Amino acid sequence: MKKYYITTPIYYVNDLPHIGHVFTTVLADYIARSKRNLGYDVYFLTGTDEHGQKAEKTAKQTGITPQELADRVVENYYKLWKQLNISYSDFIRTSESRHKKGAAEFFRIVHHNGDIYKGFYEGWYCVPCELILPESTKEEEACPNCGRIAEKKIKEESYFFRLSNYQERLLEYYRSHPGCIKPESRYNEVMRFVESGLRDLSVSRVSITWGVPVPGDPSHIIYVWFDALSNYITALGWSDNDALFKQYWPANIHLVGKDIVRFHCVYWPAFLMSAGIALPETIFGHGWWMMHSAKMSKTLGNVLKPEPLLKMLGSDPVRYFLLREAPLDTDSEISLESIIGRLNADLANDYGNLVSRTFQMIHKYFGGSLNKKPALDTAENSIINAFYSLKNQMDDYCTNLNLAEIFRQTWNIIYLLNKYIDEKQPWAKFKSPDNRDEVEGILYFICDFIRILSILLYPAMPESSTKLMDIFGIKPEEVTLEKTEYGQLPLGVQVPKSLILFPRLDIKEVLKQYEIE
RNA sequence: UGCGGGGUAGAGCAGUCUGGUAGCUCGUUGGGCUCAUAACCCAAAGGACAUCGGUUCGAAUCCGAUCCCCGCUACCA
């Protein structure tokens, strides 16, 4: 069985989950479910990054330990991922001992291989923020956190990773693996960046205590990226109980936001090279959701909160919108208006209404179940061919995250089915008793395609697909797209008289309700 | 400053590599249908393809210049 290992970043517990976290995770879930649907043995990892200075500071201010803070915040993620039906295989927390053990071992090996040395970390220090600013040649430096000019320079002992030694090996690797960073624009960015020269990287801090101690020198704590990135292998039990590691590593895809592309595409491969571990196949850096042309931020107050959206719209519609309008190459605008517009057009009008009108005719004309299959002619065959053509390309589209094409073709099938009904006019044909067999066949054809759609759309909208599958007497875990063909709907299945899968949404109502939430 | 991406109908995008009647979704307008969630189906309107110049029988597409917009430019999840 072909394996597929997919990851999201681990999210920092200092923040509450926002639409960006939701997007990355839903995207990963969609790919994971799609690959399962295609017969892959999928391992899907997500989790939380719980260490570091900010978490330590927030905990202090709140009067609790960092561990308590992490335990508290991680609940928000558990809850949200449950609401969104995220089908992760494992959820790693960097404060778990399995991770701490692995991260320390990772550090030890890289150190042993001669790529870590002790030196001094120098930088401007912003007193109010208690933050060391990135090293800079400038005389003055404004703090990225508060904007004030930092007043004093600080110098502290730190371990460094010899990133500078990896410039050529990284470039060689990128050149020989053109698909390792996607989309292409990110690949180019990373290439240019590495070509411009690499400096060694500080990988430890003495100023913090919340984290993984450096092996053999516990006054140092392993600093952010070295700790965080290693979760992708520690979660698989690397260096310890490594059955999962052997089975799933290297990752087929690390899904990340564009803000952390560099760390995944430069630092991570260099760390892995040093440790003698295989490199991930693809790192995909997607864009951001923007509101009013600005990155969402609490300061700007243009945050779209996930919880009220889920409450008002439900999990499937939120998932569908994010996937359908996914900002993969560039950033993308999001607004309640655009969400409602998309959901009404695609889900209520096209897909939901197709199901509704079909089921109602089956009831009106045949008491709720069908017992005849149609003879297939050009009209039916062209729809069947549209489906097989999509099915054959599905794996490729998923690997390359070509979601736009998947949804375009899926909705083309829905359009063809609606058109098929209009052209066949079952309501007119039914008036003559001679045509009743034909009408039954027409309805069977559509109904079987609703079954196919439920399987095709299961990775995007598991809840509504499960609703349909229940009606057809099939189980999600037993049915895959891989094995689905036209004509597998058993005769005699009883469908409900009325089924509104996706109610039409009123923009004014939604806006009003969002305000209340 | 350097590197990269982009400017196509009211909005959002495809088409540019491999020149030859400008396409998709939403919106607008008219029509059809009545099985359906005021839905669905058909049709129409709407574009000097950023600007200027060049190559060519012919350019959104190739070449040059100009003007705008956006991304990346290291320790920040």
UniProtKB/TrEMBL annotation:
Alphabetical list of InterPro entries matching this protein: Anticodon_Met, Met-tRNA_synth, Met-tRNA_synth_2, Methionyl/Leucyl_tRNA_Synth, MetRS_core, Rossmann-like_a/b/a_fold, tRNAsynth_Ia_anticodon-bd
Gene Ontology molecular-function annotations: ATP binding; methionine-tRNA ligase activity
Binding site for Zn(2+): C126, C129, C143, C146
Main location: cytoplasm
Enzyme nomenclature, EC number: 6.1.1.10
Coiled-coil blocks: none
Class of enzymatic activity (EC top level): ligase
Subcellular location: Cytoplasm
Motif 'HIGH' region, residue numbers: 11-21
Tagged with keyword Ligase: yes
Record GO biological process: methionyl-tRNA aminoacylation
Domain Methionyl-tRNA synthetase anticodon-binding: residue ranges: 404-502
Residues in Methionyl/Leucyl tRNA synthetase domain copies: 4-358
Main function: Is required not only for elongation of protein synthesis but also for the initiation of all mRNA translation through initiator tRNA(fMet) aminoacylation.
Assigned protein family: Belongs to the class-I aminoacyl-tRNA synthetase family.
Record's subunit section: Monomer.
Protein's UniProt name: Methionine--tRNA ligase
Organism: Candidatus Fischerbacteria bacterium RBG_13_37_8
Lineage: Bacteria, Candidatus Fischeribacteriota
Gene that specifies this protein: metG
